[in-house]
């Protein structure tokens, strides 16, 4: 930690993508090709390691700071300028949280806080605080994993340019999700569940991850991931909460969200019990005498409908004998 900000080095951040005990290796053919196409030797953002990006970021910020007036070089190799190169203000408390959680064991989910556009970061920003889409994808690649879907739950579109996800061939879905009220928005839950269902149906033959983020990647993110596990994958609510918090590295802060998750499990279990009871009654053999409507009707003899079976017509009978 530095000045109260969580510091997460590239090796640590990359490992957080890996589930516990994972030893999966990345194939040699794996490449994060941009939508416009890149060659094997290309050195664009999609092919650079997170180490290279972080070092380049430090160098660029250092040079920019040297050109500003009144700058001072710090002993740790980073540069803090005065007056110029100030970035936009971070979202509230954004810097207090780890950027990325671990891949949730038994699922494809990985939670992270919102990556930001580069202009949010001043030239004196410490490299460990820098977290944009390129850095995130680099961490995933370093962990030999790949994002296939990102669901953005922030209630704004000002934090980054969503087209960058498409450059990395990552599907992007947006849900404008206001803070503090997602536990009362079943419409948002159904949309989120639908996004995940669609992605999993189309990606049965791979192991691409589903990234989910709100501003901090904790409360709204945790609620909706846990709801999916409860609603679609039959998880126990407390188990879903525990696994999410362990993998994210932070606890869900809103107790009302946890209470609603437990209620969602109870509602699911009640519906299942009622269905089982109804099915059991339907399958029980009947012991009561048949009702009047169940008594078979008396036999009915249809009139012959074939001309050959009909009685001879009167005109075809032989004339009576004459004496």
From TrEMBL:
Domain named Tyrosine-protein phosphatase: residues: 112-270
InterPro entries: Dual-sp_phosphatase_cat-dom (IPR000340), mRNA_Capping_Enz/RNA_Phosphat (IPR051029), Prot-tyrosine_phosphatase-like (IPR029021), Tyr_Pase_AS (IPR016130), Tyr_Pase_dom (IPR000387), TYR_PHOSPHATASE_DUAL_dom (IPR020422)
Alphabetized GO MF terms: phosphoprotein phosphatase activity; polynucleotide 5'-phosphatase activity
Disordered as annotated region, ranges: 1-93, 262-323
Taxonomy, superkingdom: Eukaryota
Compositionally biased residues, Basic and acidic residues: 37-60, 262-284
Domain Tyrosine specific protein phosphatases: 190-259
Presence of keyword Iron-sulfur: no
Keywords assigned: Hydrolase, Protein phosphatase
Biased composition (Low complexity): 285-294
SUPFAM superfamilies, sorted: (Phosphotyrosine protein) phosphatases II
Pfam families hit by this protein: DSPc
Official protein name in the record: Uncharacterized protein
